[in-house]
Structure formats: C-alpha cells, structure tokens
Amino acid sequence: MKLLNGEILANKKYGENLYKLEVFSPYICRNCLPGQFINIKCAYEGMLDPLLRRPFSIYEIDKKFNVFSVLYMVKGKGTDFMARLVKGGMLDFIGPLGIGFKADEEIKNYLLLGGGIGIAPLSLIAKELMETGKNIFFLAGFKDEAFFLWERDLIKIARNYKIFTENGSFGQKGIPSVYLKENMHLYKNYKLVVCGPKEMLKNIQGILRDFPGIVADALMEERMACGIGVCMGCIIKIKKSPGGFEYKKVCTDGPIFNLMEVIFD
Amino acid sequence: MKLLNGEILANKKYGENLYKLEVFSPYICRNCLPGQFINIKCAYEGMLDPLLRRPFSIYEIDKKFNVFSVLYMVKGKGTDFMARLVKGGMLDFIGPLGIGFKADEEIKNYLLLGGGIGIAPLSLIAKELMETGKNIFFLAGFKDEAFFLWERDLIKIARNYKIFTENGSFGQKGIPSVYLKENMHLYKNYKLVVCGPKEMLKNIQGILRDFPGIVADALMEERMACGIGVCMGCIIKIKKSPGGFEYKKVCTDGPIFNLMEVIFD
Amino acid sequence: MTDKNTYETDLSVKFGKISLKNPVISCSGTFAGGLQYSRFFDISKLGAVTTKSFSLKKKDGNPSPRIWETASGMLNSIGLQNEGIDFFISTQLEEIRNLGAEIILSIFGESAEEFKKIALKIKPVLKHLKAIELNYSCPNVKAGGMAFCGVPENIRTITSEIKSIIDIPLIAKLSPNFGPVTECAIQAKKGGADAVSVINTVTGTAFDIDTYKPRLANIVGGLSGPAIKPAALLQVYQLAKGKIIPIIGMGGIYSWQDAVEFLIAGAAAVGIGTVNFSQPDAGEKIIAGISEYLISKNINSINDIIGKAL
Amino acid sequence: MTDKNTYETDLSVKFGKISLKNPVISCSGTFAGGLQYSRFFDISKLGAVTTKSFSLKKKDGNPSPRIWETASGMLNSIGLQNEGIDFFISTQLEEIRNLGAEIILSIFGESAEEFKKIALKIKPVLKHLKAIELNYSCPNVKAGGMAFCGVPENIRTITSEIKSIIDIPLIAKLSPNFGPVTECAIQAKKGGADAVSVINTVTGTAFDIDTYKPRLANIVGGLSGPAIKPAALLQVYQLAKGKIIPIIGMGGIYSWQDAVEFLIAGAAAVGIGTVNFSQPDAGEKIIAGISEYLISKNINSINDIIGKAL
Ligand SMILES: Cc1cc2nc3c(=O)[nH]c(=O)nc-3n(C[C@H](O)[C@H](O)[C@H](O)COP(=O)(O)OP(=O)(O)OC[C@H]3O[C@@H](n4cnc5c(N)ncnc54)[C@H](O)[C@@H]3O)c2cc1C
Ligand SMILES: Cc1cc2nc3c(=O)[nH]c(=O)nc-3n(C[C@H](O)[C@H](O)[C@H](O)COP(=O)(O)OP(=O)(O)OC[C@H]3O[C@@H](n4cnc5c(N)ncnc54)[C@H](O)[C@@H]3O)c2cc1C
Ligand SMILES: Cc1cc2nc3c(=O)[nH]c(=O)nc-3n(C[C@H](O)[C@H](O)[C@H](O)COP(=O)(O)O)c2cc1C
Ligand SMILES: Cc1cc2nc3c(=O)[nH]c(=O)nc-3n(C[C@H](O)[C@H](O)[C@H](O)COP(=O)(O)O)c2cc1C
Ligand code: FES
Ligand code: FES
C-alpha cells in the first residue's frame, strides 16, 4: 500500500449516476488483487470538505497499459466531486487496501452474486477466476437500466450470467436472491461470492442456512476513516464460538468475510 | 443585486497566478457600474469549504455580447478553486454589489493609480471616464511581469499611462507612489482614484496631505462575510469631525471612499 | 421553488406562547432587519425574522478585522455593533413590518439594569412583536454577553425581571462555552422564558503565522457555520431529552436536511445564521425543502417529526 | 521532502522533563502504534508517537457505526477499543521501538484504581517511554473518560497517585467539553503533571433524517478535524497566557501552517490526529514544512517562535 498520484485517463459516464474512472498506475496494476480497494481523496488540495477519503473497489486492471479503473455511483459530495474530475488531472489515492480475493484450489465452481454497484469488485474477481480456469456463474440484480452498459464489460469476462432488474428495464424482471432461493439446489457445490446492499447479504445468509456446508464469501462495506486499520472505525461483528462475537475491521481484516459468520444487527 | 448563475465563457491564464474569467450575464452587463463588485461562491454545491463567497471587482463589461469579466490573482483556496473552473460551467455569484463609481461633472482630469490587482476595477473606471470624455492618466505599479498581458487591455482604453515594475521586468523600474510624489504638482487639478495594497494607499494619503483641496477616491478592501451590509464584518474607520471616527461598511458604504477620510491603523 | 401558498402540508409550529407559520427563523446578527434579503426572496415566508441584538444605546462594536474564515465555518468578533433600541423602534420595526415578516426582537444588556431599561422602551411596540430574544451569550463583549451563562442564576433573575415589565413571550439565547446548556435552560425556565435559543457561537481564535498577530483585532471570536453543527445538535438533543423547555435549534444549519436534523433531534423551531451569507436565499430554500420532505414522506404536519429521534 | 538529517534549523523542544527532537507528535487513537504509517514515511522522524489509549484489560469498544463525517470534521465513538496494556507491553512496544520512534504511552482507566493498576504494570518498561499520557477526556465511554474533567480535583488526585508509583513525565489529556480547560490544567500541575494535551474531541452528534436514527450507534461522538481548530487554538492560547503548565496543542491541525499557529499561540509541541487519516504522510510533511518556514524566516530555533503570538 502506498500514497499515490495517478493520471486520470478517462472519467466516462456509464449510466444514470454511474461513472468509470480510469487511472494510470503501474504500482496498482502490479500489486492489486481482486477484492482490494483504494481510498480516494475527494477534494482539491487545501479544501477541507469532504475531509475523509472514500473507498472504492478496483473494477478492472489492464496490466499491459498499466491502467486500472473504478466503477462508481454518485451518492454524495465525495462521488459528486469525482464525477467532475477530468482527463489529464491527477487522482490522489491510497492503495491497494484490504485483503484480496484468492481462488480456492479445491473449488471448481463459483457463483458470483452482485446487487447494484456490488458488481464492481465481483467483475474483477470473475475475471481472475476465469483466468485460473474456474467455472463461474454471475448473477446480478439492479433497480433499473443504470447498469445497462456494464453488460458489455461482463460479456468479455463471463458467458454464464443472468441479469435481473426490479423494473424489468433490462435483463429479467425480478431480483437475484429470489432466483437463488428457488435454484440454490443447482449450486450446492459452488462457492458463493456476494457483494451488495446489507439487506441483500442478510437475505442470502438466510437462504444459505438451509444448505449447511456451503462456502460463501461476502464483500462488506462499512464507513471508514483511515482505511488502513488504525482508527477502529469500520468494524463489523463476526461470530465467535460459542455464541459470542468479535469486532473485525472491514478495511484490513476484510473487506472479504465468511458470509455465514457475519452478524447483521 | 441578485443571486445569479452565469455561464462561464472563458477562464484564461493572464500571467503568473493571474486569470481572467468571462461570464455571460445580461443582468450584470445592464446594471453594473464601474467600481462595483460581485461575490463568488468558490465551492461546488454541497461542499462546505471554503464557506464564504469571495469578492471581486468587475473588470470589463461587454454590453453587446452581455459578457463581463473578472481579473483575479490566485491567493488561497477560493481563488485556487476559481482557477480550475472551465468553459461551459456555471458561476454562482451575487451582484452587482457596492456603490459604483460616478464621474464628477465638474472634473475633467482623472489620475488613476493602481497597485497590483488594484488595476482591475480601475480599468473599468478608466473606460467609463474615457467614454464620458474625461482626460485620464493611468499609473500602474507591479512587482514583476505577471501583469504583462494587461497592458494589451489597457491600451484599448487609455493612451496616457505609465507602468512601473519593482524589478523592471516590464514598464519602468520603480514604484508609482514615488513617481507621484515627485510629479504631484503636475496633477493638482486632477481627481485621483486609487486602488491597491493598504500600504500604498496609506503612502498616497501621506503624499496628498501636502496638497490641500485635492480630491481622491480610494477603492478599499476588507474581509467580507455577507457582502450586502448585513454582518458588519467589513468595517473600516472613517474620519468624523472633530477628531473622531465612525465605522463604515466597505461592502455597502463603499468600496469607494474619500481617501483623505480613511483612517489606517 | 414552492410558493408559500401552495404548501400541501402543515408547517406551523407552536411552542410556549409562540406560534409560527413555519419553524424557520433567521438568526440574530445574520439577517439585519431582513431588508437586504428581501432582494433575494419574500422574507415574510420565514417563520420569523430575528433582529440583530439591540442595546440601549448605539454601540460601535469591536475594531477591524472582525471576521476570519475557518474550515467550514467563520469567526466573528463584531461586538454587537448596533444602532441602539431607539433605531429599532423608530425605523427598523416599520421596515420589517412593511415586508410582512413576523418579528423576534433580540436585545442585549451589559447588566440587568440595561436589560430592564430596554424592556421599558419597547413596551409601546410589543404588539408588533412575536417574541423577545434575550441575548445572554455574545462572546464578543467585555461586559455581560456570554458571562451571563457562566452564572446560570443570572438568567433566571434577569428573565423574570423582564417578564415583570413586559408581557410577551421571552426566548433566552444560550452559550455553549460552559459545557452543556442544561443548567442555563433550567434557570431560563424558572425565570419564565417560553423557549431557549441553542446555540450562540463557540469561542475560537486564529493567528497569522507571518505577523504573529491575531486574525481578529479582538483576538477571541465566535465560531459559526457548519463546523459547529455536530456540537450544536448534541446540545439540542440532550436538552430536548430533558424536556425542560422548548428549543429553537441553531448552529451550522446549511441545508433543509440540516434543519430537519435539528427538528427530529427535538428542536421546536430552527435558526439559520451564517448560511445566509453564503446562500442569501437559504431561508426560502430550506422552508421549501422541509415541506417537500414532509410531502414525500406523507407526513401531514411538521409536528409529527419534531423530536422523532429522541 | 527534506531528509531528517538535513534540517538546517533546530527543531528540538524541551518542556517539563520531556525533550523531543521536534514538536510534532501523533495523537492518541489516530496512529495506532505507527506500524501502518511506517509504510508511508519513516515514523522515527516524529517528535514522538502517542499510542492508542490502553486500558487494563482488552476493551471491545462501542457498537457500529462508529464514525460519521461532518463538515471539515468527523465524529467518532470508538469507545477506546484496545487490546489491553499487556498487549502493549508484550507486542506493540517492541514494534514501535523497531521502527525507531520515541513513544508516549497513552493510558486510560475507568477509575483511579484502574489507572494505578496500569501504572504498576508498565513500571518495568518505563525506560523505553518518553512519557505517559493520561487520558482524562474520552467522550465515548460510560465510566471515567471526560467525566474526570467535570470534577477537576480528580485530575490532581489521580495524577499524583500515578506519580507516586512511576517516575516518568506525565501528560494529562484534557477535555474541552466543560468550558475552558484552565482549572483542569491547574489541577494537573498540582498533581505533578509535566504537561497537558489540549484538546481531546468535542462532543457532538448527527442523525439520519430518513430513519430518525443516530449516525453513531453510541449517539454521542467526539468531533475532531479542522472544524474544531479555532476552538482548540483558543484553549491553547488562553492556557498559555496563564503560564500554568506546558501544553501539547492539538485539534484540527491539517497543515504545517496550522502546526505553526499552535506553536505561536503558546503550545510547546503539537499533536496531529485526524489529518493522518486523510493524509497518511502528514507527519513528515508537517515537520518539513515547519523546518522550511523557520529557514525562510531566518529563525534558528523553533523555541524562538513558541508563544510568539502571546
Ligand atoms: C471497501 C469498499 C468498497 C467500495 N467500493 C465501491 C465501488 O467500487 N463503487 C462505488 O460506487 N462505491 C463503492 N463503495 C461505496 C463508496 O465508498 C461510497 O458510495 C462513497 O464513500 C460515498 O461517498 P459520498 O461522499 O459520495 O457520499 P456521502 O453519503 O456524502 O458520504 C458520507 C460518508 O459516508 C460514507 N459512506 C457513504 N456510503 C458508504 C458506503 N456504502 N460504504 C462505506 N462508506 C460509505 C462516506 O465515505 C462518507 O464518509 C465501497 C465502499 C467500501 C467500504
Ligand atoms: C471589494 C473587493 C474587490 C476585490 N476585487 C478583486 C479583484 O478584482 N481581483 C482580485 O484578484 N482580487 C480582488 N479582491 C481580493 C479578493 O477578494 C481576495 O484575493 C480573495 O478573497 C482571496 O480568496 P482566497 O480564498 O483565494 O484567499 P484566502 O487567503 O484563502 O482567503 C481567506 C479569507 O480571507 C479573505 N481575503 C483574502 N484576501 C482578501 C482581500 N484582499 N480582500 C478581502 N478579503 C480577503 C477571503 O475572502 C477569505 O475569507 C477584492 C476584494 C474586495 C474586498
Ligand atoms: C456575524 C454574526 C453576528 C452575530 N450577531 C449576533 C447577535 O447580535 N446576537 C445574537 O444573539 N447572536 C448573534 N450571532 C450568532 C447567531 O445568531 C447564531 O447563534 C450563530 O451564528 C450560530 O448559528 P449559525 O451557525 O447558523 O450561524 C451572530 C453570528 C454571526 C456569524
Ligand atoms: C478515531 C479517533 C480515535 C481516538 N482515540 C483516542 C484515544 O484512544 N485516546 C485519546 O486520548 N484520544 C483519542 N482521540 C482524540 C485525538 O487524540 C485528538 O485529541 C483529537 O482527535 C483532536 O485532534 P485532531 O483534530 O487532530 O484529530 C481519538 C480521535 C479519533 C478521531
Ligand atoms: S477504516 Fe480505520 S480501521 Fe478501518
Ligand atoms: S461584508 Fe457583511 S457588512 Fe460588509
């Protein structure tokens, strides 16, 4: 992990409130594992609001051209600032952060399930899995057509996927966790990797309770101050036998956790 | 005075840390007098630092195309933000503010004396005076060649001028107040209009004490919060006979004051 | 922008003996008498306009420089420059009335005596006022000011003395510079106040590292603006929990979301101060925003959200 | 970046029995033990590293969410999650020593008893420490914490009891949440402290207007960052005027200019906290900036600027 300044090569609108930021950084491209993230400064130098950096997963890595990208949704003032960044400017960020994703040698089949912007880190994980010869099935769910263009990126990675939208505006109308519930028997020997809103993760945890022995990773999000394990701000509750829990830091103990051990309050 | 949103037509670098911002605004072009200023918001919506607006004099007005401009020096975070504004974006500002400059019917000759960025409001005043048929002499003093390009704007307004730089990098080497001291006898029947650093104004006030009856206007600067006469933040001391003083607000009682009545502490 | 007659939801609030058409009030010292702001919006839309604090006689205030910008905030050391209560009575009162706005008159005395003298002067114009705000909390004056909050019993005594002179709702404006305002609020209540305004500015300072001089001639100033919002909100919340007295919440409100945050934290109304300098149409925007928020949530009356977070 | 061996000016400071190679110290709780930051710069360049506050036993701290960003600041309600003093002694001490940094150990007890027990435990490692900081000011714990500052005599008693157990410079860390820290500083002095750290975080809160829930599970949090700088600076300045006890000034320092501002206001050293989250190389940059400032002004020793604005 380093404090870096990377040249912005593009900041493209991808859909309603959705952007892809491309940054030149040999260091990130060489050292980043899928699932890791960077912490971006969202203010010009000297401006003190917003004060804290914002965490974003790495979406793509192009080792040939030393370019990585971040796919992000405009939510508040930090991402609003990012949306105004232009080609040629510099991005001030720290990375790579968190423990990255490593494919399990023993497991051949992976089911990736993303809700909303949760598909961002999963896309890079999917790519990695494909490259290591795994069999993957990608399930994605969105509210609407904001992520329409993402399918173009996905098909380059995975042939086996299903997209749901709540309003049916693209893909199938519906939500992926309902599909999962109905079809989980087909994926009993898959490892799951999920990322999305807390409610979705909680739902899936519930569904998987009926399949003891299933292995599922979840990429968690929590508000962060430092992103490097110092402030103790980003903790979540992780089960600790018997019946207890311990606090784990999303930024350095995660962001990937065993879904079945996460305690949602 | 209105709260306005004007399209930015250009934001040109004019010299070291010097920029000219051109904004489309029929309202300002119709209603602004020379010497008046606008109060610019220097943060994107939702960002709370810097919090207060920044005051800038109107530099040029192009009534035909409804474009006005501001000439500004990058000093701190507000002007740093301004320097990053790009064509096509919008400028959030309040104006016109302050009491404008009006030529005195009785007076034919005007000596304008500007130090540094103080030449900005004086340029518009000069133009107005020329258009009303006055005789003007423009004295300007700078540290270095940062204002080199400004001469190009000036010659369109005034033929009669002298530029000094402290390092002699353009114009004559020297400072205008020394020139004034030595040549003031030539300008006894001129009205002076001066704008620049406090030290300069104080100097000139000293020089003019030897010329009783001389009329001199000074454009004053003071830190502002509201810019519209509400907060009482921008006060300066103005002489009040006998021997006393009263506080006047630069934003609404000024920014133009009788130089000989200003009390510099 | 929503027009004032088309609000589809009831924004009116009532606390103590004070009724307002909506809970958004301009803060003392940040709105003058509203005249300037009437160039930006119809100030009669506000719940009320609070005037600059008036003293018995004209006050010159502190020397310049008086303001300094800080991170998401500003320091001021105006020192209550004002034209004196006679100016309010003879001139400004009429001006604000012409603009159709409800008026909360803020007054300031260096001593109980001065407060009482002002009270006597305003007796004839009480009918034009919604309430009187008693500024017990200015950080920028040598005598009186926030020192009143350092000895909370002062607040009871002065408030009750004023109450015995004039029969009008009284609001005690409190200082956050002595820790929690609870004790001051209790004393204000005992003295007969109808509400408290919480908070006045937080004391602070700044220096010039080149000249070693203070950024404010007065050295100490009052910090206002978004920087102080978390602290102001906590004061309001903790006081509201105690159910001591109705609260006008203020300190760092910049958006309608901020205003709602104060209301759900238990404020009966909110004051908007520094934001007026930055966004002169903030009053109108904040009222419209609150209204739209209620509509979007299908809430009929603002009273249904007040204290919701308690 | 200036290399640590090429400073052309003397940055070393001495206050009470504490000598530091330069006045820039990391604040407790914002730097862990420095290990993470050693990835960004050589942390031995710092005047000292202050550890997270350690309690007698491991503490889990408060539930999540624990942080919320505010205008130019942040609220935290970590609640002193830490691994316990044994962890410091057995593990972290060695780690920091390996990085070559001077150490100020911050400790926290819910009671005088707990403080004393910790003191006993650290007796064997005192030689590796520059000083002990006594955290009398955490806003996020149920027992102890800033409540100590509500009754200043506590500070005298506990400090002197600790002093009788361990012979090492003591620093009392004070809370700004009860008004001026003066009385607490006087008591710290009486109790035998060598210095005070001023200020710990300012209490504050925030709410979610959609769910009506507090943004922090603990409701109350401590505000830090640039937002609080004017208030912190005033506390330092006023205390320095009183010449009571040396001060480590902290609260909102973001740049070397801010650090210099605290020094000229009378701080003998400065603590940098929240800025580390935003700019992980802040420590190095601030030291270099101060050094270049002195050089540019032809000042040979940092001591020539300390208190210059007083
Ligand atoms: C490990 C990790 C990876 C992430 N990857 C992505 C990604 O690839 N693409 C993407 O669009 N978003 C991602 N997010 C979420 C992203 O960080 C937030 O959307 C962003 O911080 C919002 O900032 P804002 O200023 O626009 O919003 P605001 O609402 O103004 O933010 C206010 C505060 O809340 C925090 N915050 C708000 N939402 C979140 C959130 N979901 N998670 C954590 N903190 C939050 C902000 O950091 C800030 O401190 C990720 C979050 C985490 C923790
Ligand atoms: C009536 C008036 C007209 C002006 N016209 C021009 C102009 O045409 N061109 C130009 O370049 N500058 C002009 N200035 C000065 C300009 O307002 C400041 O340079 C600018 O505010 C600096 O902002 P900053 O954030 O970059 O600097 P910072 O140093 O970060 O500002 C910090 C604070 O100090 C205030 N401040 C700093 N310098 C000044 C100053 N000289 N006067 C008043 N407040 C100040 C800022 O507004 C802010 O509140 C004018 C000032 C006034 C009062
Ligand atoms: C420039 C200025 C002048 C003020 N003058 C007064 C005053 O005369 N009387 C008063 O009670 N409060 C005064 N205040 C305090 C405000 O009314 C308000 O309590 C404080 O600024 C916090 O709110 P804000 O953060 O929204 O500004 C003043 C504040 C500012 C910034
Ligand atoms: C996340 C966080 C954790 C903190 N933990 C501690 C602590 O354990 N002990 C302590 O004395 N102060 C603690 N503090 C307070 C800081 O040491 C410092 O006094 C305060 O943050 C003000 O400085 P700043 O504005 O530079 O951050 C903590 C602050 C933050 C932001
Ligand atoms: S964000 Fe600071 S510990 Fe995780
Ligand atoms: S800036 Fe507010 S009165 Fe002039």
3D structure, described in words:
The complex is a heterotetramer, with two copies of chain A (265 residues) and two copies of chain C (310 residues). Chain A is of the alpha/beta class and 265 residues long. Chain A folds into two domains: 2-97, Translation factors (Elongation Factor Tu (Ef-tu), domain 3), CATH 2.40.30; 109-219, Nucleotide-binding domain of ferredoxin-NADP reductase (FNR) module (Rossmann fold, 3-Layer(aba) Sandwich). Chain A has six helices and 17 strands. Chain A has helices at residues 26-31, 77-83, 119-131, 150-155, 176-183, 198-208; strands spanning 2-15, 18-24, 37-40, 54-57, 60-62, 67-73, 90-97, 109-115, 135-142, 161-165, 172-173, 190-195, 215-219, 235-240, 244-249, 256-258, 262-263. In chain A, strand 5 and strand 6 form a beta hairpin. In chain A, 50% of the residues are buried. The mean pLDDT of chain A is 95. Chain C is of the alpha/beta class. Chain C has a single domain (13-61, 80-202, 226-304), classed as Aldolase class I (TIM Barrel). In chain C, 30% of the residues lie in helices and 17% in strands. Chain C is built from nine helices and 14 strands. Chain C has helices at residues 85-98, 112-122, 147-150, 153-165, 182-190, 229-241, 256-264, 275-278, 282-296, and strands at 13-15, 18-20, 24-26, 48-50, 67-70, 73-76, 103-107, 131-135, 170-173, 195-198, 202-204, 221-224, 247-250, 269-272. Chain C has an eight-stranded parallel barrel with strand order 3-4-7-8-9-10-13-14, surrounded by six helices. A four-stranded antiparallel β-sheet of chain C has the order 5-6-12-11, with no helix packed on it. In chain C, strands 1-2 form a two-stranded antiparallel sheet. In chain C, strand 1 and strand 2 (18-20) form a beta hairpin. The longest helix of chain C has 15 residues, at 282-296. Chain C is globular. Chains in contact: A-B, A-D, B-C, C-D. Chains C and D meet through strand 11, helix 6 and helix 7 of C and strand 11, helix 6 and helix 7 of D. Bound molecules: flavin-adenine dinucleotide (2 copies), flavin mononucleotide (FMN) (2 copies) and FE2/S2 (inorganic) cluster (FES) (2 copies). The site of one flavin-adenine dinucleotide has 23 residues of chain A, from strand 4, strand 6 and helix 2.
